Amino acid sequence: MTTKGHQRRAKILEAARQVFEERGFVETRVADIVAAAHVAQGTFYTYFDSKDAVFAEVAQNVIDDMLALLHTPRRPGASAHERVREGLRRFTEAFRPNARIIGLIEQVGTFTPEMRTLRLALRESFVAMSARGIARMQAEGHADPAVDPLMTAEVLGAMVDQTCYVWFSLGKEFDATEVLDSLSMVWSRAIGLPENGAREDG
C-alpha cells in the first residue's frame, strides 16, 4: 500500500470511530462513514469489506492502545500502596476516553464472538497484571500470603471495570480523586496491605 493509501485508510478509520461513537454500531451505515471521511463509497470498499470489518479494526486499535497504557513500567521505590493506586489510575485514565467504544464492543459482543474475545482480552490483561502485582507484594512481605492472587485480581478487577462503566459509560458523576481513593482503599484492604501510613518493610 502506498503512503497515500495508508493515509486514506487511517482517515476512514478515524471517521469510522467518530461515527460509531456518535451513532452507535447498529445505527451507523457505511454511507455515514464515507461522508464523515469525505471519500467515495468505492474507496471505503478498497480497504474494508463491511461495516463490521471497519468496526473490528477500530475496536482492536482501542484495545491495543489501552493495553499499551496499562503496561507502563512501575515507578522504582514506590510503596505498595502507591503501586496499587498507580495501577488503578492508569486503568481509569485509559478507560475514560475509550468508554464509548468499549461499550459498543460489549454490545456487538452479544452477537459477535470476535468482539467478546476482544473485550475479554482487555479485562484478562488487567487481571493478569494485577495478579502479578499481588504476588510480588506477597513475596516482598506486604500482602497477605493467604490471598489467592489470581482470584482476588478477578474479583477486584470486576469492581474496577464496573465502576468505570458506571462512571464513564452511564455518566454517573464522581469526583476522580474520591473514586481513586476508594478503589485504592478497597483493593489494599482486600490483599491485606497494612494501613496506609504504617511502615512497609522491603
UniProtKB/TrEMBL annotation:
Protein name: AcrR family transcriptional regulator
DNA-binding region listed in the record: 29-48
PROSITE patterns: HTH_TETR_2
Superkingdom to which the source organism belongs: Bacteria
Organismal lineage: Bacteria, Bacillati, Actinomycetota, Actinomycetes, Streptosporangiales
Domain HTH tetR-type: residue ranges: 6-66
Pfam families, per the entry: EthR_C, TetR_N
Sorted UniProt keywords: DNA-binding, Transcription, Transcription regulation
The keyword Phosphoprotein is assigned to this record: no
